[in-house]
């Protein structure tokens, strides 16, 4: 996530914020801490920020130094030693934003995220959508895959997770992604391009349009809101909050 893409970041955050529950919050793959800063600002609770990369974990420790309610861990959920260091903790909310597609064994990661949910806890998951859009840009970002709705539902149900919301996010980014990755075969990270910065300036317009037309049949990402309830929910209705 480009730290300069403030409009897009706020828009994405506005989509998941209503589902975050107060209490203990785990962010899987905090990276540069862009969403972490928003969580720390809006939720005065216990935050556990994690990343697989030692350099990112170090940056997070520097960013949040002196904030006792925030803990930082170097964490790869598919490594048993890492998982054992956290498995006895329970979280009211787990966020996994643009991370699952990087994990080879995504089913194991979902299993372990489910095991870390507290009673009535919620998993907020955002992944890239449509495997037909998988291209050189995905490869440049280290993506292993993109997800169809059916594939994501199968993965989540296979881990015993109940889905309460499942909806697309950002249909407006699809043409550019397809042009630069599928047609032009660009391999540079899209967030570094001038075209992406121009797109970011248009995000307030896109967000306003989405607030009036909340149900989209497609989008560049999928957002799933899940719990560990034994009985699966049949409510797969979308939720959108268009304001930035």
Summarize the structure.
The protein has nine helices and seven strands; from the N terminus they run αβαβαβαβαβααβααβ. It is an alpha/beta fold and 244 residues long. It has a seven-stranded mixed sheet with strand order 3-2-1-4-5-7-6, with helices on both faces.
CATH architecture: 3-Layer(aba) Sandwich
Q: Level of helix content?
A: 25-40%
- Please state the average pLDDT score: 91
Q: What topology, given as strand order, has the largest sheet?
A: 3-2-1-4-5-7-6
Strand content: 15-25%
**How many structural domains?**
1
CATH topology: Rossmann fold
Radius of gyration, in angstroms, nearest whole number: 17 Å
Q: What is the helix tally?
A: 9
CATH class: Alpha Beta
Structural features, described:
The chain is α/β, with parallel strands linked by helices and 244 residues long. It has one domain (6-227): Vaccinia Virus protein VP39 (Rossmann fold, 3-Layer(aba) Sandwich), CATH 3.40.50.150. It is built from 9 helices and 7 strands. A 7-stranded mixed β-sheet has the order 3-2-1-4-5-7-6, sandwiched between helices. Strand 2 (46-51), helix 3 (54-63) and strand 3 form a beta-alpha-beta unit. The longest helix is centred in the last third of the chain and has 19 residues, at 194-212. The two termini are 17 Å apart.
């Amino acid at each position: 996530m480009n730290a300069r893409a403030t409009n897009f970041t706020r828009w994405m955050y506005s989509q998941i914020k209503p589902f975050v529950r107060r209490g203990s919050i785990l962010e899987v793959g905090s990276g540069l801490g862009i969403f972490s800063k928003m969580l720390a600002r809006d939720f005065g609770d216990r935050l556990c920020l994690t990343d697989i990369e030692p350099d990112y974990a170090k940056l997070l420790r520097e960013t949040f130094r002196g904030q006792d309610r925030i803990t930082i861990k170097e964490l790869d959920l598919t490594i048993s030693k890492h998982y054992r260091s956290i498995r006895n903790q329970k979280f009211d909310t787990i966020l996994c934003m643009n991370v699952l597609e990087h994990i080879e064994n995504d089913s194991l990661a979902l299993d372990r995220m489910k095991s870390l949910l507290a009673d009535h806890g919620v998993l907020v998951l955002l992944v890239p959508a449509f495997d037909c859009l998988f291209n050189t840009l995905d490869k440049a970002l280290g993506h292993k895959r993109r997800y169809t709705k059916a594939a994501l539902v199968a993965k989540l149900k296979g881990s015993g997770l109940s889905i309460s919301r499942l909806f697309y996010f950002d249909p407006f980014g699809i043409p550019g992604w397809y042009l630069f990755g599928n047609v032009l075969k660009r391999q540079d990270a899209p967030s570094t391009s001038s075209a992406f910065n121009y797109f970011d300036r248009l995000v307030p317009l896109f967000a306003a349009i989405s607030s009036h037309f909340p149900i989209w049949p497609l989008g560049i990402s999928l957002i799933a809101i899940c719990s560990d309830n034994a009985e699966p929910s049949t409510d797969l209705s979308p939720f959108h909050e268009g304001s930035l």
